[in-house]
Amino acid sequence: MRSTPTLRTTLSGFGTALLLAAASPAHADDPAKILKSMTDYLTSQNTLSASFDSDIEIITPELQKIQFASSGQVKLGRPDKLRVRRTGGYADVELVYDGKTLSLYGNDAKSYMQAEMAGTVDQMIGEMQAHSGLGMPGTDLLLTNAFEELMGTATDGKHIGQGVVDGVECEHLAFRTPDTDWQIWIETGAKPVPRKYVITSKTVTGAPQYTLRIRDWKTDAFAEDTFVFKPPAGATRIDINSVAMAEFDELPPGTPTGAKK
Questions:
Q1: The domain spanning residue 50 has which CATH number?
Q2: Which positions make up the signal peptide (predicted)?
Q3: Each residue's pLDDT tens digit in the chain (261 positions)?
Q4: Count of domains in the chain?
């Protein structure tokens, strides 16, 4: 004789079904294919601009996790023009690259530095990451070989499902590499731009994260002087290798080693 389900067992079964539904993507699309559609869209645009908010975490010697928040704007003119402004609690900095000269200006430091660096934005970003010591997470999204750069060391990828970032429906992807786990939320539809990007370091105790939220994507043409750097009145020029480079970082002096990606 079948017993009549009780309210408790009915609710229990309903809860299990909800958990299973939450754990299973609505449709398991190929994460690499979705990522490729994003990188193809970005690299096909001659001009790009966007605003962003970033959070970078550090782990103190006492194993306390601290976040530092910044906001900014980016303007890109392929193949060799870039302007980035970032304002945070410890730095107000601007990077301007015109294909020949790299200029960095620190509003708080009232100083700037310049270096001759003819080439493309890709080459400039590579030089900066290799020699300056400044963290530039998120710039890999701007590269002309962004897909290869992002997937180069990936050992696993998943399409988690859908998500909503700043009111925009997105595809949520998660990838793993030997050193980091990273997630990206890509806007659905004809304009597959990245809306959120999270990098988790697995080689630092406490697994600190870098989070980037991107909005206001535009592909409009820029004014002719967008990528022209003009030192503000009273600004002091310093050597590119000066210790004052610390003024251009998004973390305060004394941040524990290994906190940045």
A1: 2.50.20.10
A2: 1-28
A3: 444 444 444 344 444 444 444 444 445 589 999 999 999 999 999 999 999 999 999 999 999 999 999 999 999 999 999 999 999 887 789 999 999 999 999 888 789 999 999 999 999 999 888 876 666 778 999 999 999 999 999 999 999 999 999 999 999 999 999 999 999 999 999 999 999 999 999 999 999 999 999 999 999 999 989 999 999 899 999 876 654 455 455 666 566 544 443
A4: 1
CA gyration radius, the chain:
22
Range of the domain at 91: 29-248
| 13, part of any domain | no
* Termini Cα distance of the chain: 63
Query: Distance between CA 192 and CA 205 in Å, rounded?
Result: 34
Closest CA to 48 of 56, 37, 39: 39
